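Hey, quick one: can you model this chain's 3D structure?
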Amino acid sequence: MWSQLCYLRKKDKKKKKKKKPTKKKNKTKTLGHYLTGGQTNKYDVQNTLQKLAFAFSSRTERLARDIMQDMGSHHIVALCVLKGGYKFFADLLDHIKALNQNGDKSVPITVDFVRIKSYCNDSPTQKISIVGEELSALNGKNVLVVEDIIETGRTMKALLSKLKDKEPKMIRVVSLLIKMTNQSPGYRPDYIGFEIPDKFVVGYALDYNEYFRDLNHICILKEKAKEKYKI
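Sure thing. Here's the predicted structure for all 231 residues.
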């Protein structure tokens, strides 16, 4: 009798037992998940280059190691190309400073900035505007130029021509992105983060008429967004 009663109770519990809700699979978030209000919305961007987002840190650290191996024996002046390069510059410099502090020999590292304007909307301008601090301090130093993206190399060549007049000991260029385009005459910097398709990209300090710099990830701008923010 007692065994039958226990059996009935167990059977009753099984009936009342609710099914556990199935867990939804974690999907990779697209940029639209991060665009909530403000100056942008999810309809302005096509997609996030997620592979770049996940690889940024490790690739930046690798670049820092290569740079220190080549330039780490003498005073380094890290020259940030504004405005698009400031986030990459900050992250790269953190890795460089860590390697410099933990290495056998510590060298002086100073920073400087130069601002270049060569785009209006999504097209290059005829005139390249270069505005910087007094760059005479570059004389005899190892100069590392930190750029966000290089397409044709026209802008970088103009900057390098100006820097060489200051007679630095060495000039090296690192660019986070290289755009694969038929318009490029073949210029490639000394250090490259990633190669990307021939698309207009924004985010991670890269902009379109000053919009989208605040985005955490690099993404492709839609054509209708270009019209929306055109000047």
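One thing worth noting: DSSP finds five helices and nine strands in the chain.
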